[in-house]
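Continuing the series of single-chain predictions for the mutant panel. This is the parent chain; the variants come on the following pages.
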Amino acid sequence: NYLLIPGVSSERRKYIPFGFISPEIMASNLVNISQSAEPYHFGILSSTMHMAWMRYTAGRLKSDYRYSIGLVYNNFPWPINATDKQKAKVEQAAQAVLAARAQFPDSTLADLYDPLTMPAQLTKAHAALDKAVDTCYRSQPFTNELNRMQFLFALYEELTAEDEGLIKDT
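Parent structure:
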């Protein structure tokens, strides 16, 4: 299965509705796909942590977010010190998000992620996922989006400084 990454998503949503599609489905030019994604990757991308990064780095199409692989995905600072146990918790929580969605087979992702009508089961599953993802970054809870962004940009600087050191050494 491929991870489906919407190219544009409503600014009203708390979470971009990422998903999985099977290889026999032809993806349109309105989405991006990742061939090697696992539930862990889906979980990280579906988290409040990634949504905070996306809101600060994505472009806009009118008022909606335009998800750029180059700007948002490729520059996102993934957790670097997550343990196998923490990753397993993210995978379990990601599967719970997918299971919560599956409880509503007649609803579209647009319906499920409408902030006014998002089902309680899905909201609860995302809250558990957020907690699992946050602990992959640090043990201290994040208090708000600004706190998340300060942490993520510091991590980004650390990661890119390491890359610059590798480039300068060659």
